[in-house]
Amino acid sequence: MNSDSIQSLGDDPVIKLLDNRMKNIFRDLMMTNNLKTYQAIPTSLKTGRQACIDTSISETSIETFDLVFKNYAKTEFIAKGFAFYSNELAESSILAFKTINLVLAIYGRNIIDKLFIVTYHQST
Question: What is the Cα–Cα distance from 18 to 77, expressed in whole angstroms?
Fold first, then answer.
């Protein structure tokens, strides 16, 4: 947060507590590895035709990464006391996650290489 935002929070301990919770939730979500239920690669592949068509499986039952991430984020926000805004916060957290991954995919090598070089020179 910039200094203007911090000054607008004032000395209210409840607002500071909620601000710290929000920061911690977003930090944890951006670095999370708790989405073990999501599998990008199927564990087995089946070939050939199915003997019968299962109509009980719909397209909405297929879990994508976005859906799993949003559900996990929503439960985290609800657990930390942000139940009223959990849908909007979960949506913004998936957008933040995707944005960070895109920036790292495009510029990551330049940023990370420079960080390692600077850190190495400071340690020697």
Answer: 11
